[in-house]
Amino acid sequence: MILALMRRTGIFVVSVAAASVAVFLFMAVLPGDPAQVALGINATPELVARTRAEFGTDRPLATQYFDWIGGVLTGDFGRSYVTRDLIGPQLADRLGVTLWLVGAAMVIALLIAVPLGSFAAVRHRKLSGTVISGVSQLGVAVPAFLAGILLVQVFAVQWRLLPSGGWTPPDQDFGEFLRGLILPALALGLVQGAVLTRYVRSAVLDTLREDYLRTARAKGLRPGQALVRHGLRNAAVPVVTVLGLQLTTLLIGAVVVERVFVLPGLGSMLLDSVAARDLLTVQGIVLVLVIAALLVNFLVDLLYTAIDPRLRRS
Amino acid sequence: MTVLAVRGLSVSVGDTELVKDVSLEIGAGERVGLIGESGSGKSLTASAVMGLLPEELDVSGSVELDGRQLLGMPERELSRLRGRAMSMVFQEPMTALNPSMQVGKQVAEVMRLHRTNQDPRAAAVDLLDRVRLPDPRRAAKAYPHQLSGGQRQRVMLAMALANNPSLLICDEPTTALDVTVQAQILDLILANTQGSALLFITHDLAVVATVCERVLVMYDGQIVESGLVLDVFTAPQHRYTQQLLASSDLESTDENGRLKTVSHD
Question: Is the pTM here over 0.90, yes or no?
Answer without folding.
Answer: no
